[in-house]
Amino acid sequence: MIRVLVAEDQSAVRAGLVLILRSAPDIEVVGEAADGERAVRLARELRPDLVLMDVQMPRRDGVSATREVVGEGLADVLVLTTFDLDEYVFGALRAGAAGFLLKNAEAKDLLTAVRTVARGEGMIAPAVTRRLIAEFAARPVRETSADPAVLDALTRREREVLSCLGEGLSNAEIAERLEMAEGTVKTHVSRLLAKLELRSRVQAAVLAQELGI
């Protein structure tokens, strides 16, 4: 059972999210928060598997709350917002969010996202992935803050996996492209995250884009 905490300040939206999540037999909503401060407090008390986090909330925004929840190892965070590409995307991903989904996503896509993040595979909504990649591609090289030297610690295979992560590929898609077992892909992802001192595979995807690999 996937235990989820829903953090959303708009009561009607929150109620709708809870209704969708509770319709799934493998998901349990263990708590609700109307602001970022309460989201962090409930994450500490309830220790959910995942926090579905809005970015614009009173008392504390979702990016700040995500940074604390992930930083303390309380839960994975799936960020939910109406904004498809702005500072919230980058802020949430750098804060350690494991996924990013738009509020206009279909119910089935929300459930898929929750399950994907819960099993350790970060995800970004396809529309966001395309625009995220386009944004990085349009940046002058001098704007990147990433140091290419960090790749020296990776094996050739780990670099290939990192490149695939930068394209937003799932473990299954990476396995097919690189002709390896899915379990082996998971091992490579875990090792490269540890070597690069990253919190999630989504952060690895951002790094891959920044480095242009």
The residue fraction in helices comes out at 40-55%
Q: CATH topology of the largest domain, which one? A: Rossmann fold
CATH architectural designation of the largest domain: 3-Layer(aba) Sandwich
Q: Main β-sheet, in a few words?
A: 6 strands, parallel
Q: Kindly report how far apart the N and C termini lie.
A: 37 Å
Q: Count every beta strand, where a strand is a DSSP E run of 2 or more residues.
A: 6
For this structure, what is the CATH class of the largest domain? Alpha Beta
Low-confidence stretches: none
Tally of individual domains:
2
Radius of gyration: 17 Å
Treating each run of at least 4 consecutive H or I residues as one helix, how many helices?
10
Shape: globular
The named CATH superfamily of the largest domain = Response regulator
- Helix-strand string: EHEHEHEHEHEHHHHH
What class do helices, strands and sheet pairing give?
Answer: alpha/beta
Query: What is the beta-strand fraction?
Result: 5-15%
Sheet with most strands: strand arrangement = 2-1-3-4-5-6
Keywords: DNA-binding, Phosphoprotein, Transcription, Transcription regulation
InterPro entries: CheY-like_superfamily, NreC/VraR/RcsB-like_REC, Sig_transdc_resp-reg_C-effctor, Sig_transdc_resp-reg_receiver, Tscrpt_reg_LuxR_C, WalR-like
Modified residues (4-aspartylphosphate): 54
GO molecular function, one term: DNA binding
Short description:
The chain contains ten helices and six strands.
Features:
213 residues, Rossmann fold, Arc Repressor Mutant, subunit A, six-stranded parallel β-sheet, 10 helices, 52% helix, Sig_transdc_resp-reg_receiver, WalR-like
